[in-house]
Write a structure and sequence with these properties.
Length: about 140
């Protein structure tokens, strides 16, 4: 009887651990939320220890740096194309091309910024969280 209860407990723990959703199903809504309020989205959807390899110079950055990008922006819109999502359990890798356009507080529109990207996400606390970003510059105007 003890063995059966122990086995049942392990199965239930495993089921809960892998109860994440399919990232491909969530991706469109996540991108819509990102474009609606980029700062709030990334504040809520990045882990505290996230890393970003920046496309403009290849530097390794952190969440504070990422959030600093949005301080001088009224808005930012990203169009992600050629998106491929690979998911195994609670880990996902997303690749594709991004075209990012921003409007600065003074009304200027720098860019557009065109990059190839790789994002790593983990299912944590009931949602997909960005843990790593890598952008490679394709074209900056």
């Amino acid at each position: 009887m003890k063995n059966s209860l122990f086995t049942l407990a392990l199965l239930l723990i495993s089921a809960v651990a892998f109860a994440q959703t399919n990232l491909a199903d969530e991706w469109p809504a996540m991108q819509q939320a990102r474009n609606a309020d980029v700062k709030a989205f990334f504040q809520a959807r990045t882990t505290p220890d996230m890393t970003f390899i920046a496309g403009h110079d290849g530097s390794l950055q952190n969440k504070e740096w990422l959030m600093g990008l949005f301080k001088n922006q009224k808005s930012q819109h990203a169009e992600l194309t050629n998106v491929k999502i690979q998911q195994v359990g609670d880990l996902a890798v997303v690749t594709g091309l991004s075209t990012i356009e921003a409007i600065l507080m003074d009304g200027r529109k720098p860019g557009p910024y065109k990059d190839a990207f790789t994002y790593t996400l983990r299912w944590l606390d009931g949602r997909w969280m960005f843990t790593n970003f890598h952008h490679t510059k394709i074209e900056y105007k």
